[in-house]
Specification:
The complex is a heterodimer. Chain A has two helices and no strands. By secondary structure, chain A is mostly helical. Chain A is rod-shaped and about 80 Å long. In chain B, helix 3 runs antiparallel to helix 4 (86-96) and helix 4 packs antiparallel against helix 6 (118-141). Chain B is 71% helix and 0% strand. The interface between A and B is large, with 41 and 45 residues.
Chain lengths: 108, 147
């Protein structure tokens, strides 16, 4: 294997490991957050329906709380989208450093 | 020697491309902004405090409501003006929309009903608090600005 091919192989492995490390935790955290949120919807809806039946809250307040869950889901999705962009930006920076360091070491 | 030269030329091309990709126009998201962070945290505290007053008649807190509304709008305009900050800006729109179901709607309902129920206030404070936390969470997750 030539030195150039050896450098490319090192880069391929490095890039793969880097991408996995960056995104695996992010995906796991996002999925977990989503599951917890879905669980909370069921519990809260039951509680609010009960409050409405007992006239502890008004109908307008009940609707507001239910709709609030939808808006929170939107907020979470926007945050996840933003954080994904941040991860990609960071990956680009790390990738550049990896390439430079690998090539310098390889030709050294 | 040919191989070394080839590697060197490729590296130079890559670095030039990378330098272009690292310019602000190539980033996907704005960097962390400390003013935005402290502003959001401060507005969360103010919002929670004001929401807690909604057992009272809305008319008694008219000035406080107006002051908070102005601060919220100011914060939104600041976020809207930041480059590559669309996600955060959209979060502020969702938060303050009087036709939505978070802070903007809370204020609108308070003004309409005059007073709000204790249970509703407690539950809506949780939702609005969480909404602010999502904005804060995104801001702290943004890349640190390069020096």
């Amino acid at each position: 294997m030539s030195k150039f091919e050896s450098i490319l192989e090192t880069l391929k492995t490095g890039i793969k490991n880097m991408a996995e490390a960056r995104f695996k935790d992010f995906l796991d955290d996002t999925a977990k957050d989503g599951e917890e949120f879905l669980d909370s919807i069921k519990a809260d809806l039951a509680k609010w329906a009960d409050d409405l039946a007992n006239q502890i809250i008004t109908e307008a307040e009940f609707k507001s709380l239910v709709k609030g869950k939808k808006d929170l889901a939107k907020m979470k999705a926007l945050k996840a989208r933003g954080l994904a962009k941040a991860k990609i930006d960071q990956l680009r920076t790390d990738l550049i450093n990896l390439v430079v360091n690998t090539v310098v070491k390889g030709i050294g | 020697m040919g191989g070394r030269r080839r590697i060197f030329c490729l590296t130079m091309k890559f670095m030039l491309l990378s330098a272009l990709c690292l310019t602000p126009g190539c980033r996907l998201i704005s960097p962390y902004d400390h003013h935005a962070y402290t502003q959001t945290v401060s507005l969360k505290v103010e919002s929670m405090f004001l929401m807690g007053k909604a057992r009272d008649d809305c008319a008694k807190h008219k000035d406080a409501i107006e002051n908070l509304s102005i601060k919220i709008e100011t914060a939104y305009e600041y976020e809207k003006g930041r480059h590559k900050n669309e996600d955060t800006a959209e979060m502020w729109i969702t938060l303050k929309d009087p036709d939505g179901a978070l802070l903007g709607e809370f204020i609108r309902l308070w003004e309409k009903q005059g007073k709000l129920s204790e249970r509703y206030i407690a539950e809506k404070k949780k939702q609005v608090g969480q909404a602010f936390d999502e904005i804060i969470g995104l801001e702290t997750g943004k890349p640190k600005p390069s020096k």
